[in-house]
């Protein structure tokens, strides 16, 4: 599309928005907290822009969100634990950012999650064991972080797990 500039706070006025795809552009700046007002939003794809700053915890108020794609940006800070409140989330893509800290324990609450992709960040610490109790999980990509710990012995390991 060739979009430049920032995502305006006015995006929060689009309260009936269900689908937002402004990926593969040159958008910069922070993702405004007002995205949390998009309670009907089911799909958000902002991948491969130049967005920075922290992922707003207000995203947890997008109760209908099924897919969140923020990979390929410059987000930093930690993954907000409030993401664990997105009970309908099926696909989470946060790879290729500058995210730091630990994977929040609350992500174990994402019972419908099928894909968890957070490679190429600066995450560290143990992988929350509860993540591997999500029965719907089909793909976990964690490579190129500084994570450690044992994987469950009863888990079927595929090449897509790390």
Automatic annotation (TrEMBL):
Example GO biological process: defense response
InterPro entries the record matches: Leu-rich_rpt, LRR_dom_sf, PGIP
Topological category with respect to the lipid bilayer: Single-pass membrane protein
Highest taxon of source: Eukaryota
Primary residence: other
Recorded GO CC terms: membrane
Subcellular location: Cell envelope; Membrane
PANTHER family, sorted: OS06G0587000 PROTEIN, POLYGALACTURONASE INHIBITOR 1
Protein name from the UniProt record: Uncharacterized protein
Organism annotation: Escallonia rubra
């Amino acid at each position: 599309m060739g979009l430049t500039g920032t995502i305006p706070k006015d995006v929060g006025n689009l309260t009936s928005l269900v689908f937002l795809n402004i990926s593969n552009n040159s958008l910069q700046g922070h993702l405004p907290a007002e995205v949390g007002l998009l309670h009907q939003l089911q799909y958000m794809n902002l991948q491969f822009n130049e967005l920075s700053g922290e992922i707003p915890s207000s995203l947890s108020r997008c109760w209908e969100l099924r897919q969140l794609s923020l990979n390929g940006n410059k987000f930093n800070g930690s993954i907000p634990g409030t993401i664990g409140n997105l009970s309908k989330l099926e696909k989470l893509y946060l790879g290729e950012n500058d995210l730091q800290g630990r994977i929040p324990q609350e992500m174990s609450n994402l019972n419908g999650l099928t894909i968890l992709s957070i490679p190429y960040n600066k995450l560290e610490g143990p992988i929350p064991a509860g993540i591997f109790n999500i029965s719907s999980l089909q793909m976990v990509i964690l490579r190129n972080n500084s994570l450690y710990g044992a994987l469950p012995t009863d888990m079927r390991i595929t090449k897509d797990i790390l």
